[in-house]
Specification:
Strand content: 5-15%
CATH topology of the largest domain: Rossmann fold
Structural class: alpha/beta
Number of domains: 2
Distance between the termini: 49 Å
CATH architecture of the largest domain: 3-Layer(aba) Sandwich
Largest sheet: 5 strands, parallel
Number of strands: 7
Low-confidence stretches: none
CATH superfamily of the largest domain: NAD(P)-binding Rossmann-like Domain
Mean pLDDT: 97
Helix content: 40-55%
Number of helices: 7
Shape: globular
């Protein structure tokens, strides 16, 4: 009763459940639902590429079904506080109580491995090696139009690029400062990798920032990408 009275002061629509455990489980499951579906579409993006078809055209076609389909799009992985964290917590609790969490664990692995897959694709398109190449990562926030970098997929992309010997800088006019580094100019790179596309960043400037642009977002008109 006290909880309802408190939240009713600033929430228009309250949904009551039988216990705090049910409410927390609902939140965890909703974030796990998104983690799993993002993993599915990320895996399908790899399948579509191997088949030589467009993942985006395929998703748009599937989305014409009037029921039973919810469109997700591929990406470099998941970020933020909720989706990368809550499913792992749910899996941990499930396994503590003797319940399987195989599907949840696999979804997490797929999303974490996307950064490595993307870097391999970029290397394959550039003579098989990124050693000494100047690579600019465009967008390090975990989603567009925010400055939040918690659990951002850009971190793993940058990590794998540097492991391959690339000289990596990043451009994000929303984040500006991150991990002791500053946003670099959107120009002068050998390779640009679009991880997050803010609305304020001009697509033409991205495409002119490097002779090769790999887009992980589906929001930039580059011939290279997921």
């Amino acid at each position: 009763m006290k909880t309802r009275d408190f939240y009713s002061k600033f929430c228009d629509n309250l949904i009551e459940v039988s216990s705090p455990e049910v409410a927390e489980a609902a939140k965890l499951f909703e974030n796990t639902f998104r983690q799993v579906n993002i993993a599915l579409v990320n895996e399908f993006a790899q399948i579509a590429h191997s088949l030589g078809i467009s993942v985006y055209e395929t998703l748009d076609a599937a989305n014409t079904k009037p029921y039973g389909f919810m469109k997700f799009v591929p990406s470099a992985g998941v970020g933020g506080h909720c989706i990368p964290v809550d499913p792992t917590y749910l899996a941990y609790v499930a396994e503590e109580h003797g319940a399987p969490a195989t599907f949840i664990r696999r979804a997490n692995d797929v999303n974490l491995e996307m950064s490595k897959y993307i870097v391999k694709r970029i290397a394959a398109d550039n003579g098989g090696s990124l050693h000494g190449k100047n690579v600019l990562v465009v967008g390090v926030a975990y989603k567009p139009n925010v400055a939040d970098v918690r659990e951002t997929a850009a971190m793993l992309v940058i990590e794998h690029l540097r492991k391959e010997g690339a000289v990596v800088s990043w451009h994000d006019e929303v984040v500006k400062q991150w991990k002791g580094e500053s946003s670099a100019a959107l120009a002068g790179a050998d390779i640009a990798v679009v991880v997050t596309k803010h609305d304020s960043v001009d697509e033409k400037k991205i495409l002119s920032s490097a002779p090769y642009v790999f887009d992980t977002t589906g929001r930039v008109s580059s011939p290279h990408g997921l």
